[in-house]
Amino acid sequence: MKRKYPPDLNDSSEYRGMVHWFSPLVLAKTAKKVIDSTLFGQYADRRLVHAALDSPINHDTLIEDCCRGEDGLCGGKQEIWVDYVADLGDGFDSTYAIAYMIGQKQLPVGDITLPRADCLIMGGDQVYPDASRDEYEVRMKLPYRAAFPYERNGDHPKLYLIPGNHDWYDGLTLFLANFCRGRATSLGSWIASQRRSYFAIHLGQNWWIWGFDSQLGEDIDAPQADYFAAVAKKMRPGAKIILCASVPTWLKADIAGDKKGQEEYYRALHYIAKILHDECPNAKVPLVISGDLHHYSRYVSKETGTNFITAGGGGAFLHPTHHLNDTISAKWPGIKGEFDTLEVGIGTDGATRAFYPPKHASRRLALGNIRFPGRNWEFCFLLAGLYCICALAMLAWSGYAAVGENDTFLNLYWNQVRILASSPVFLIIFFLLPIVFILSAEISSRRRRVFIGGLHGLVHVAMVLFGTAMVSTLLNFFGIQSIYTAGEMLNFLGFLAGMIVLGFVGGFLWGLYLTTASWFWGDHSNGAFSALRLDSYRHFLRLKIEGDKLTIYPIGIDKSPQRDHWKHNPEYGDPNAGQDTPAITPSEGLGQDFIEGPLIIDAGELAPLKAG
Question: What is the C-alpha R_g of the chain?
């Protein structure tokens, strides 16, 4: 049977670009989803409902029923291969570039050719900007199906997923419906068969991979805790566990700084570590992986030798690295609050830090928001609307007062400034806007938040006052309103045009604010880099397990191919084409290379988890 080709690659409805996070529609929709999901998570946790409807856990057959049995997912294989990818489902180009590499039967990287993995782990945020049926279908499923098409009699690597905060934006409804049916569900030729939003899988050779779901508040629900405790009791002593978290708590806690923030972020990871320590003698955790932050970084525990890797490079906009510390004081193993030191991984050259993008490149990219109005013009119209509301309120209070006649423009202008500044409406704006900007600023230091956020708010207050005075004075000075019949309409259109111009000036100031906060202190990293919508420095992890040795291959591409660098594969339509014939291919190589390493961890040399 001849396959049907995917749609035209220039069809933006099917092959979407990076999400415009500063679009008013996206901002409003995301804000609503965040509010809804937070309330839903607090009062109607979908994990509890799903666990209640699921079959009860049979402790006698738990390993066979839920964890791939005593032989493990890979049976008696001497080499076990696992892929890890997180934060996908944004723009097509970056998402498909990673999916294409993961789906290749043989992937050349440097001087090494790596086989396709036996298992694919998706570590959260499978779709952006929110968990809708359409977004899942177009931004996530379409690229992965095209990269590794379904073939009934072909190779079918297993697929396991944990949800991130964007998967939770609909209360986890579609995530559970798509991937947690308890029966085989295909994503191309990858097959998902998990029953819940978390999993514990025996890979073989007493190696395990655990993926836990900490919802939106870094909490583990009771059925999930019972599940992991039951699995841990059945695991052989000395088990080696790879933990997959939805949030890199070690980085989030360090950025939060305050004790309360650290306790919140470490809560779920500590709970899982305690279960392993209490229920599985001499359990070892060679690797903890997470996405959520869209960069690559690796830290190593001085106490246990555990590697902590953040690898959120599956397709979403890039996050910076230049604000990350080389040393982190972290709670690990953390059974009783014990602190440990995590040090950034060092390359084989003894100098290269395990950051991708490198810090110097990250800092350079942070300067990109100088061009904020051009990349986020929709947001400039939102600012124009805000300025327009404030301007009309001030002008209405003063009765749309005339600024005088037969005087110089400068005198007329300052007269209007004094009229507007003396109104109670302006006083409300003067005090309210800085408070709003302070509260919404993503700045870790409280003093810096008050100073920079307040200063940013005052800049926009100045824009409202002096901009409104300028527009109204210009219209009055040139007498547009007095034009016969069309004067009122022209005056109104002129006012709107002036507010739009002010909106773009305000957009430039907003970009300058993001650039300053991000470049100097690494603050506002989410806002500053989501505004840039960078699809560069994409990556995933390929892991090889052999005996006690875990080899980590961090594979990255510095720049994703643009739309005109993709083409339909002519061989895809051949009736004999199999799963190794992707629907879309790059017109030239992707330039994949190792971010660092490969890294070899000998689990036999690591210290087991211990109580503090």
Answer: 27
Retrieve residue 514's tokens. Answer: 């993001």
The rounded distance, in Å, linking the Cα atoms of 481 and 470 is 16
Centre a 10 Å sphere on the Cβ of residue 79 and count the other Cβ atoms it contains. Answer: 14
| Tokens read off for 213 | 């779901």
Cα angle at 457 between 453 and 462, to 5 degrees? 145
Tens digit of each residue's pLDDT (9 = 90 or more) over 109-168: 989 999 999 999 999 889 888 888 888 999 999 999 999 998 888 889 999 999 988 888
Distance CA 247, CA 171 (A): 18
CA distances from 52 to 40, 64, 196, 217, 531 (A): 17, 21, 11, 21, 41
What's the CA gap between 64 and 551, in Å, rounded? Answer: 27
**Ordered structural domains, the chain, with CATH:** 24-356+536-605 (3.60.21.10), 371-530 (no CATH)
User: Please, are residues 248 and 310 in contact by the beta-carbon 8 Å criterion?
Assistant: yes
CA distance 220 to 271: 8
Question: Is 556 within 8 Å of 356 (Cβ atoms)?
Answer: yes
Neighbours of 575 (CB within 10 A): 7
Letter string b/e over residues 105-116, b meaning 16 or more CB atoms within 10 A of that residue's CB: eebebeeeebeb
Q: How far apart are CA 566 and CA 39, in angstroms?
A: 42
Helix (H, G, I), strand (E, B) or coil at 106: strand
Q: Which residues contact 256 (CB under 8 A, 6 or more apart)?
A: 262, 264, 265, 444
Taking the CA of residue 338 as centre, how many other CA atoms within 13 Å lie in the half-sphere pointing to its CB? 16
* Helices (runs of H) and strands (runs of E) counted in the chain: 19, 22
Q: Answer yes or no: are the C-beta atoms of 555 and 568 closer than 8 Å.
A: no
> Do 122 and 83 touch, CB atoms closer than 8 A?
no
The tokens for 292 are 């959520």
Which residues lie across from 201 on neighbouring strands?
Answer: 209
Is residue 49 within a helix (H) or strand (E), and if so which, with residue range?
helix 46-53
Phi, psi of 82 (to 5 degrees): -135, 135
Amino acid (one-letter) located at 103: G
CA distance 182 to 176: 10
What is the phi/psi pair of residue 40, to 5°? Answer: -65, -45
What are the residues whose beta carbons fall under 8 Å from the beta carbon of 108, sequence distance 6 or more? Answer: 114, 592
| Cα-based distances in Å from 293 to 156, 197, 319, 611 | 29, 20, 6, 29
pLDDT band for 488, please (50, 70, 90 cuts).
Answer: low
State the amino acid at position 497 in one-letter form. A
Under 8 Å CB-to-CB from 145, ≥6 apart: which residues? 187, 188, 583
Q: What is the pLDDT of residues 402-444, one digit of tens each?
A: 555 667 788 888 888 888 888 899 999 999 999 999 998 888 7
| Count of C-beta atoms within a 10 Å radius of residue 8 | 10
